[in-house]
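Example record

One chain of 163 residues, shown exactly as stored in the release files.
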Amino acid sequence: MSTKVSLQVRALAAIDWLKSIRYIKFGLVGASGTVVNMLVLYLGHEFLFQSLEGPEGKPYASLALAISIATLNNFTWNRLWTWSDRVRAVNTQGDARLHIAPTPLVNQFGKYALASWFGIALQYGLTLWLAHAMHYMLANVIAIVVASVSNFVANDRWTFRKR
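Predicted structure tokens for this chain:
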């Protein structure tokens, strides 16, 4: 098989994978997280941290708070909906590793946070970088879209992987 055909086969497989229902669920959860993120970012920057950041300053504190709350929102909905079949399967199998952790939920959230660290760092840095050239809210939306792909792959393959 030639390299060109192999790349085409891989591209078609990737498109099929992206069309899967799990990725659509992940996208919907991500959309809810984007709403939460944007709301917290706006409220933090315009009201809560205004004395720290100022109206023309960069949203350092409010962006960190927005990402944290949106991550908690996304973990909750991804666990309850996107990967609920895998969470139920692990719970019914009685995975011994889950009993060693402080609690299965805390353990899984730790994995989720670690798996998402790259996307979080990417979103944070890209938002601040893009905010030099555009409104910070638009910069944040662009950064969220870019970071979402790495978050899905990491969480699908590690946090909520098939047992």
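Notes: The chain has one domain: 20-159.
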